[in-house]
Design brief:
By secondary structure, this protein is of the alpha/beta class. It has helices at 92-108, 126-132, 136-145, 175-188, 199-206, and strands at residues 84-89, 116-120, 150-153, 163-169, 189-197. A five-stranded parallel beta sheet has the order 1-5-4-2-3. Helix 4 (175-188) links the parallel strand 4 (163-169) and strand 5.
């Protein structure tokens, strides 16, 4: 049966400033509201000509939001209970930006970067593409360190370890990639699974036993 978001949504004007999204795509609404928003920890940056230096501390925001659902730091290890699922409607062109905003809110709510895994089904996240340019070993070494948000393509996501929160961006790719991404994400998410994409497509996969 179709799944609906279990947490309240916040209006567009309550989001506060954010970085310009990659490729000029507009993120879709609604967006998840994972909890209160203290000063957020650092997260991976956009790609550049050389390996980026550790990002500066993200400035805190003044925007007040509702406080439903799980919040605060949590163990990356999966729990025995099924994760809570949030669906964020988005087109393939807007799914990656919607996932980025979901990560922003998670970090602002108190989640540590190492709590979060992001899986893409189409175009790779710019951070993943950049880090893979240094080689597969260096890319997975960052995953193993477990101290930052990790971005992975659906084709290799099964190599990723469990994390407290998994975000899936259905940003294109074949149907098999969506099935793989959602199956892996559901098994790796310890507390929360956020899926950004077409709700009918998401429900058809999740409803098939994922």
């Amino acid at each position: 049966m179709p799944l609906i978001p279990e947490e309240p949504q916040i209006p567009e004007m309550a989001q506060g400033p954010r970085a310009t999204p990659a490729s000029g795509r507009a993120a879709q609404t609604p967006r998840p509201v994972p909890g209160p928003r203290p000063a957020a920890p650092p997260r991976p940056g956009r790609p550049g000509p050389v390996r980026p230096a550790p990002p500066a501390q993200r400035a805190s925001r003044d925007t007040a939001v509702a406080q439903p659902g799980p919040s605060g730091p949590a163990s990356p290890a999966a729990t025995s209970a099924a994760p809570q699922i949030q669906l964020i409607p988005a087109t393939p062109d807007g799914a990656l930006d919607a996932a980025e905003e979901a990560v922003d809110l998670l970090l602002d709510s108190g989640r540590t970067p190492g709590d979060v895994l992001v899986i893409t089904t189409g175009e790779a996240h710019p951070w993943a593409a950049h880090e893979l340019s240094f080689g597969d070993a260096a890319y997975w070494a960052q995953h193993d360190a477990g101290d930052d948000v990790f971005y992975a393509d659906a084709a290799v996501a099964d190599r990723a370890a469990s994390r407290a929160v998994v975000v899936v961006a259905l940003n294109g790719g074949p149907e098999a990639a969506a099935v793989t991404a959602l199956t892996v994400a559901h098994s790796r998410a310890g507390a929360l699974l956020i899926v950004c994409g077409d709700p009918q497509r998401i429900n058809s996969v999740l409803g098939a036993g994922v």
